[in-house]
Amino acid sequence: MSQLETAAHPETLRRVAIDPVTRVEGHGKVTLLLDQDNKIHQVRLHIVEFRGFEVFIEGRPYWEVPVTVQRLCGICPVSHQLAAVKAMDQIAGYGPLTPTAEKLRRLMHYGQMVQSHAVHFYHLASPDLLLGFDSDFTRRNIVGVALDFPEIAKQGVLLRKYGQEVIRHVAGKRVHGTGAIPGGVNKALTVAERDEMARDIEQMIGWTQGAIDMVRRLHETNPGFYNVFGESAGNMMGLMRPDGALDFYHGALRAVDPLGQTIFDQVDYADYQQVLQEEIKPWSYMKFPHIKSLGADKGWYKVGPLARVQAATYLATPLAEIERQKMMALGNGKPVHGTLFYHWARLVEILHAAEMIRDLLNDPDILGTDLMADRGERRYEAVGVIEAPRGTLFHHYRVNEDDQVTYCNLIVSTTNNNQAMNEAIRTVARQYLDGREVTEGLLNHIECAIRAYDPCLSCATHALGKMPLTVEVIDADGQLASSLSKA
Amino acid sequence: MSAPIVILAVGNPSRGDDAIGPILHERLAAWLRDTPMAGQFELIEDFQLNIEHALDLVGRELALFIDAGEGTPAPFRFTRIEPAPGIAHSSHELPPEAVLEVYRRTMQQEPPPSYVLCVRGEAFELGQPPGPAAQANIELAWRCLQQLFREPDRASWDRQLSA
Question: Which of A35, A427, A470, B131 is at a distance of 20 to 30 A from B150, taking alpha carbons?
Answer without folding.
Answer: B131
